[in-house]
């Protein structure tokens, strides 16, 4: 696909917004979020159900022009599930070619092997409390880079124990960065922190700091 063809490709978009990155290794940094529409999962605790339907189609030129209005070179492609749209791949490559630090957040249910190696992958593993555990595509673990992240959202102690066991079984701490994130407003972060310490896990506790802020 030529550069001119790429910029005329379309993605279905829910929103673009500028905020503080609230999770993961980039937590606390200004970031532009490009939220694509549609999702193939229905996690019980999902906080972005508004992205499941609707959205409008935009060209790459439109998306990149809007992102370019903000004073940061950090951009995250998110959803919904962004990998449902095949054109997300050339979009990420276009951002990387333009000098952006590019991240993608994906549910872990779809193949990540074709993602541009310059892109920082934040991949979920779905614990039982999400109701989508069976959708985990375990083959994805082989395609993670040391700079990527695996995020596991924790609803309760059963989820924590599942996550702890998967971290050990798949040696996730040796593959990439691992984040345990409590479901905001439902899982006690103090309890999660104590379990991590008691079990001596080399994982990061992610508290979604954007949910404690009022950023316009």
Automatic annotation (TrEMBL):
<comment type="pathway">
    <text>Purine metabolism; 7-cyano-7-deazaguanine biosynthesis.</text>
</comment>
<comment type="function">
    <text>Catalyzes the complex heterocyclic radical-mediated conversion of 6-carboxy-5,6,7,8-tetrahydropterin (CPH4) to 7-carboxy-7-deazaguanine (CDG), a step common to the biosynthetic pathways of all 7-deazapurine-containing compounds.</text>
</comment>
<protein>
    <recommendedName>
        <fullName>7-carboxy-7-deazaguanine synthase</fullName>
        <ecNumber>4.3.99.3</ecNumber>
    </recommendedName>
</protein>
<keyword id="KW-0411">Iron-sulfur</keyword>
<feature type="binding site">
    <location>
        <position position="46"/>
    </location>
    <ligand>
        <name>[4Fe-4S] cluster</name>
    </ligand>
</feature>
<dbReference type="InterPro" id="IPR013785">
    <property type="entry name" value="Aldolase_TIM"/>
</dbReference>
<dbReference type="InterPro" id="IPR058240">
    <property type="entry name" value="rSAM_sf"/>
</dbReference>
<dbReference type="GO" id="GO:1904047">
    <property type="term" value="F:S-adenosyl-L-methionine binding"/>
</dbReference>
<keyword id="KW-0479">Metal-binding</keyword>
<feature type="binding site">
    <location>
        <position position="78"/>
    </location>
    <ligand>
        <name>substrate</name>
    </ligand>
</feature>
<dbReference type="GO" id="GO:0016840">
    <property type="term" value="F:carbon-nitrogen lyase activity"/>
</dbReference>
<keyword id="KW-0004">4Fe-4S</keyword>
<feature type="binding site">
    <location>
        <position position="48"/>
    </location>
    <ligand>
        <name>Mg(2+)</name>
    </ligand>
</feature>
<feature type="binding site">
    <location>
        <position position="35"/>
    </location>
    <ligand>
        <name>substrate</name>
    </ligand>
</feature>
<feature type="binding site">
    <location>
        <begin position="20"/>
        <end position="22"/>
    </location>
    <ligand>
        <name>substrate</name>
    </ligand>
</feature>
<comment type="subunit">
    <text>Homodimer.</text>
</comment>
<feature type="binding site">
    <location>
        <position position="39"/>
    </location>
    <ligand>
        <name>[4Fe-4S] cluster</name>
    </ligand>
</feature>
<keyword id="KW-0456">Lyase</keyword>
<dbReference type="InterPro" id="IPR007197">
    <property type="entry name" value="rSAM"/>
</dbReference>
<feature type="binding site">
    <location>
        <position position="43"/>
    </location>
    <ligand>
        <name>[4Fe-4S] cluster</name>
    </ligand>
</feature>
<feature type="domain" description="Radical SAM core">
    <location>
        <begin position="26"/>
        <end position="216"/>
    </location>
</feature>
<feature type="binding site">
    <location>
        <begin position="45"/>
        <end position="47"/>
    </location>
    <ligand>
        <name>S-adenosyl-L-methionine</name>
    </ligand>
</feature>
<dbReference type="GO" id="GO:0008616">
    <property type="term" value="P:tRNA queuosine(34) biosynthetic process"/>
</dbReference>
<keyword id="KW-0408">Iron</keyword>
<dbReference type="InterPro" id="IPR024924">
    <property type="entry name" value="7-CO-7-deazaguanine_synth-like"/>
</dbReference>
<keyword id="KW-0460">Magnesium</keyword>
<dbReference type="Pfam" id="PF04055">
    <property type="entry name" value="Radical_SAM"/>
</dbReference>
<dbReference type="GO" id="GO:0000287">
    <property type="term" value="F:magnesium ion binding"/>
</dbReference>
<dbReference type="GO" id="GO:0051539">
    <property type="term" value="F:4 iron, 4 sulfur cluster binding"/>
</dbReference>
<keyword id="KW-0671">Queuosine biosynthesis</keyword>
<comment type="similarity">
    <text>Belongs to the radical SAM superfamily. 7-carboxy-7-deazaguanine synthase family.</text>
</comment>
<keyword id="KW-0949">S-adenosyl-L-methionine</keyword>
<feature type="binding site">
    <location>
        <position position="80"/>
    </location>
    <ligand>
        <name>S-adenosyl-L-methionine</name>
    </ligand>
</feature>
């Amino acid at each position: 696909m030529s550069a001119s063809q790429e910029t005329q490709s379309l993605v279905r978009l829910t929103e673009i917004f500028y905020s503080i990155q609230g999770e993961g290794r980039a937590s606390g940094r200004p970031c532009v979020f490009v939220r694509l529409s549609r999702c193939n999962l229905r996690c019980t605790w999902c906080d972005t159900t508004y992205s499941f339907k609707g959205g409008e189609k935009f060209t790459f030129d439109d998306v990149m022009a809007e992102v370019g209005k903000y004073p940061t070179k950090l951009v995250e492609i998110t959803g919904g599930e962004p990998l449902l749209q095949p054109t997300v791949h050339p979009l990420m490559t276009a951002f990387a070619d333009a000098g952006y630090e590019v991240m993608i957040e994906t549910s872990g249910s779809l193949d990540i092997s074709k993602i541009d190696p310059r892109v920082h992958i934040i991949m979920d593993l779905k614990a039982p409390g999400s109701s989508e555990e069976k959708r985990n595509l375990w083959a994805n673990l082989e395609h993670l880079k040391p700079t990527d992240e695996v995020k596991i959202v924790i609803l309760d102690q059963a989820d924590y124990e599942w996550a702890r066991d998967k971290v050990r079984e798949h040696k996730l701490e040796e593959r990439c960065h691992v984040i345990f994130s409590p479901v905001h407003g439902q899982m006690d972060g103090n309890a999660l922190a104590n379990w991590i310490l008691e079990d001596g896990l080399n994982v990061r506790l992610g508290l979604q700091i954007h949910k404690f802020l009022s950023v316009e």
